[in-house]
Amino acid sequence: MPTVVCPLCGNRRARRGCPAVGQQICAVCCGTKRLVEINCPADCVWLASAREHPPAARVRQQERDRARLMPLMLDFSERQVQLFFLLANFIARYEPPELQPLFDEDVEEGAGALASTFETASRGVIYEHRAASLSAERFANALKPALAEMGRGLGSAFERDAAGVLRRVATLARDVRTAETANRRGFIDMLRRLVAEFPAAEEGARKEGGDEPPRSSLIVP
User: Fold this and answer.
1) Hey, CA dihedral for 19, 20, 26, 29, is it positive or negative?
2) How far apart are CA 150 and CA 147, in angstroms?
3) Taking the model in full, what pTM does it have?
């Protein structure tokens, strides 16, 4: 029998049937691209096995992620939790223009500028704060429509909530960037893992202010 090469990496032997790709792929691509580059169906046996028996390295990474997130979300209201997952989903899936990657410092700067704009608006003053870098400004401009849709008709209460969540996101992006100097996308990578780990909360966030607030599967003591 001829060796089947993984269509994703083009190097390793394909051994696992992938229902999302419709072909066999290698174990490495299955493990590293799962729910990130591969849109895995909920009934995938490999996805179910990984969730039931995560490797030790992944468990340690999840513990580090939660240790960073817990202080951030400890005093969040239900709407702020919803806002946070909207932001996490947006950042994790944001696709910048070609050859202009988004880094943690862009998220920090863009979220900070939007936080200042919402803080000013909550005091009854309309003034749009701008990010200094072009990448951060593009990111902020792309995020604005989602926040505007979620806050439609909610007035200053939403503006205060949005400002608070954006300010915390900017702070966390700075903290992760400081701790992981070798990885300029450490915070973005963390949010991608979060979105993959809590798909129910992500789906709730995408409803953007429906009648029933999303119930996050992230347990905040």
Assistant:
1) negative
2) 5
3) 0.67
Is the distance from CB of 71 to CB of 198 less than 8 angstroms? no
Distance CA 95, CA 105 (A): 16
CA-nearest of 27, 65, 34, 69 to 48 is: 34
Tokens 């992500």, residue? 202
Measure the CA–CA gap between 191 and 92, rounded to whole angstroms: 6
- Whose structure tokens read 């909920």? 42
Tokens of 116: 């200042």
CA pair distance 63, 134, nearest whole angstrom: 34
Residues of the chain with pLDDT under 50: 200-202, 204-221
Q: 170, 119, 160, 168: which is closest to 140 by C-alpha?
A: 170
Which amino acid makes up residue 85?
A: F
How many whole angstroms separate alpha carbon 93 and alpha carbon 98? 15
Sign of CA dihedral 17, 22, 26, 29: negative
Neighbours of 119 (CB within 10 A): 19
pLDDT digits (tens, 9 = 90+) for 117-152: 999 999 999 899 999 999 999 999 999 999 999 998
Report yes or no: 55 and 134 within 8 Å, Cβ to Cβ.
Answer: no
Distance CA 157, CA 215 (A): 20
**Closest Cα partner for 84 from 191, 174, 176?**
191
Q: How many helices and strands in the chain, by DSSP H and E?
A: 9, 2
In the numeric block, which tokens belong to residue 100? 């202009």
